[in-house]
Specification:
Layout lengths: L9 H12 L2 H17 L6 H15 L6 H10 L3 H6 L3 H7 E4 L2 E4 L1 H9 L11 H14 L12 H14 L7 H16 L7 E3 L5 E3 L33 H12 L2 E7 L6 E8 L2 E6 L2 E3 L2 H9 L4 E6 L9 H16 L1 H4 L11
Antiparallel strand pairs: 1-2, 3-4, 5-6, 5-9, 6-7, 7-8
């Protein structure tokens, strides 16, 4: 059956906060970090103290900073204590941007975590789980208008969280508690081990078990923003990088690229079309269907839309991260040609 993520509300938030309180690992880890940041080493002027705090965060949260000393020295140089207390949002960018071994890095997620543990009610944490939850409900309920990249602009990110809480009537929790709810929800439904299944078309009867990226464990962290590989399972090509999967289909089978444009999002979804035995079919990561509504229904939300042909000119030059995503898309297509090759409609899901 298709996984349904519960609609956010006060009751759901309370449910997940209760789950948090019953998880000894979460509770003790959080207490330990809070004690370290607020009681033992509350200031950020001593390199040894900052090095300990940064190392603990890096280990507990797996933020993939491979030269933690450079980060600690960087934090001390910024003289952040007064600004932390004031809730200065520009600290996120200043802490996150750093040059290590002559390479400019942006450890955005780490910066939000470091600031949050000093001032949790002013600095909500950003991580990939929260990102996926917000993008999911943006597409499902259109609670706010924003691009995924906006989540990495910290003032905008905080505003999106406020819009999220307002839209769903969440009034019973603090900013920190909202943070805890979103993280647990994302971990449950979007984690590497419990990822959403990719659904094949044909009346919801066919499913593709979550396909893992074979290079996930061995990929170079330097190739990705925040050192985190977003291409860990096939669901990313439905929620976040659909243009790369469409590009891979176009390259493999010469299908025509299509871009779904809506009133709120000019890049709502990318997919392909192809003609076979006199009929037009539509293809994305979920497979092939004759029914256009199967492809676009979750992205249009009763708003006006337009479908235009897309030439993939923006995908001709890819970043290292995007190139890794394209390679993963090609891997999926190559191991499941019966799901994506229009000439193979006799098998797999067309019975």
């Amino acid at each position: 059956m298709v996984t349904i993520i519960p609609t956010p509300c006060n009751q759901e938030v309370e449910k997940y906060l209760e789950l948090w309180d019953t998880n000894d690992k979460f509770v003790l880890q959080e207490k330990s970090i809070n004690k370290l940041f607020t009681e033992i080493f509350p200031d950020n002027t001593n390199i040894e103290h900052v090095l300990i705090k940064a190392s603990v965060l890096n280990d507990f949260y797996s933020t993939n900073i491979f030269s933690i000393y450079d980060m600690a020295k960087h934090i001390v140089s910024l003289d952040i204590d007064k600004r932390l207390k004031k809730g200065d949002e520009t600290l996120i960018s200043e802490i996150g941007h750093i040059v290590i071994a002559d390479k400019e890095k942006y450890f955005y997620s780490f910066a939000t975590k470091y600031c949050s543990h000093h001032n949790p009610e002013t600095f909500p944490i950003y991580d990939s789980y929260v990102d996926k939850v917000l993008m999911h409900f943006k597409k499902k309920d259109k609670f706010a208008v924003f691009k995924q990249s906006d989540l990495k602009d910290y003032p905008t990110y905080k505003d999106i969280l406020s819009q999220f809480a307002k839209f769903y009537g969440i009034t019973s929790c603090s900013l920190k508690e909202l943070d805890m709810y979103l993280w647990q929800l994302g971990k449950e439904f979007f984690s590497q081990k419990i990822a959403l299944p990719t659904v094949f078309f044909k009346n919801g009867e066919k499913y593709l078990q979550t396909i893992k990226n074979p290079k996930y464990e061995t990929s170079n962290p330097d190739d990705f923003e925040d050192g985190i590989n977003p291409y860990i399972d096939a669901d990313v090509f439905l929620h976040g990088s659909c243009q790369l999967f469409a590009f891979a289909l176009h390259n493999k089978y010469k299908y025509t690229g299509l871009n779904l444009q809506t009133e709120s999002n000019e890049y709502a979804h990318f997919f392909c079309k192809a003609n076979f035995i006199g009929k037009e079919f539509y293809i994305d990561v979920r497979g092939i269907t004759e029914n256009l509504n199967d492809v676009i229904s979750q992205f249009i939300y009763r708003e006006k839309y337009e479908i235009v042909e897309y030439d993939f000119k923006n995908e001709k030059v890819l970043s290292k991260e995007e190139a890794h995503g394209l390679e993963f898309a090609e891997h999926i297509i190559n191991i499941h040609p019966d799901f994506y090759n229009i000439n193979g409609l006799g098998g797999a899901f067309y019975e």
